[in-house]
Specification:
With 118 residues, the chain is an all-alpha fold. The chain is built from eight helices and no strands. It starts with a helix and ends with a helix.
């Protein structure tokens, strides 16, 4: 599963969002023992969906990641949230679905820590 997560990261970095979502899904443990790894893999998936133009799905997945990240304290976690926010375009931010997502996301420490857009 760790290798699948690395492939997901690589595909995201290469701008190959479809492959990132495919590989990333197979790298999430979901057992509560690997929250840090699950957080990173989930944020990669959320960002990949945003890149594919599937904002609603990306927001849903990002919300799951933010829940996972509540107990995590790391600069890398903050960086992943920042990178996700950077992928949200200005036109996406004007949409009601983003405003709803951002309102919920403000309830999570990592989102606030980044200085989240509204």
């Amino acid at each position: 599963m760790e290798l699948a997560a690395e492939f997901g990261h690589c595909f995201r970095d290469l701008g190959r969002s479809a492959q990132a979502t495919e590989r990333g899904a197979g790298s999430i443990f979901g057992d509560g023992l690997n929250n840090r790894s699950d957080f990173f893999a989930t944020m990669v998936q959320a960002e990949a969906y945003i890149n594919q133009g599937e904002a609603t799905r990306g927001y849903e997945i990002a919300m799951s990641a933010l829940r996972l990240g509540e107990g995590l304290k790391s600069a890398r976690c903050v960086q992943y949230v920042r990178e996700f926010q950077d992928r949200v375009t200005d036109s996406m931010k004007r949409a009601a679905e983003f405003r709803d997502f951002a309102e919920q996301a403000r309830g999570f420490r990592l989102w606030r820590q980044v200085g989240a857009p509204s």
